């Protein structure tokens, strides 16, 4: 099963979901019975001017999510959208994973 969120579900997560703001990214999440535990990533040109940097930021977020989902850290009934911030530039996968874990704990308490 793919961990990528389908494009048709983005609008639903933005309209019905909630958000958590972090230092490296903003996470929108929607807990629903039909959610497949997938994630979408967004990085704006305003944050990263060069396409190479935008693509690297997206790869980092996707890989961090994939590793956390594989380890069972990410809840299976929640769809996510991660929006990268400029502070994401130059970070390692471990930093992104640490922030995603923090966001999951934040969502569990709210």
Give a description of the structure.
- By secondary structure, this protein is an alpha+beta fold.
- The protein has one domain (7-104): Ribosomal Protein S5, domain 2 (2-Layer Sandwich).
- It is built from three helices and four strands, in the order αβββαβα.
- The protein has helices spanning 10-16, 51-70, 93-109; strands at residues 18-21, 25-31, 39-43, 78-84.
- The chain has a four-stranded mixed β-sheet with strand order 1-2-4-3, with helices on both faces.
- Helix 2 packs across helix 3 (93-109).
- The termini are far apart.
**CATH fold-level label:** Ribosomal Protein S5, domain 2
The total tally of domains equals 1
Strand order of the largest sheet: 1-2-4-3
| Average pLDDT number | 92
From the N-terminal CA to the C-terminal CA, the straight-line distance is 28 Å
The CATH architecture assignment turns out to be: 2-Layer Sandwich
Spans where pLDDT lies below 50 across 5 or more residues = none
The top-level CATH class is Alpha Beta
**Rg to the nearest angstrom?**
13 Å
Structural class: alpha+beta
Share of helix, binned: 40-55%
Instruction: Count up the helices.
Output: 3
| Fraction of residues in β-strands | 15-25%
> What is the strand tally?
4
Most strands sheet: 4 strands, mixed
General form: globular
- Order of SSEs, N→C? HEEEHEH
């Amino acid at each position: 099963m793919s961990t990528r969120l389908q494009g048709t579900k983005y609008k639903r997560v933005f309209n019905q979901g909630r958000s958590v703001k972090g230092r490296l990214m903003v996470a929108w999440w929607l807990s629903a019975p039909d959610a497949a535990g997938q994630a979408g990533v967004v990085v704006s040109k305003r944050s990263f001017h060069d396409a190479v940097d935008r693509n690297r930021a997206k790869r980092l977020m996707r890989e961090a999510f994939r590793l956390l989902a594989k380890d069972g850290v990410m809840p299976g009934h929640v769809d996510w959208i991660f929006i990268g911030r400029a502070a994401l530039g130059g970070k390692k996968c471990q930093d992104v994973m640490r922030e995603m874990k923090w966001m999951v704990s934040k969502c569990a308490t709210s």
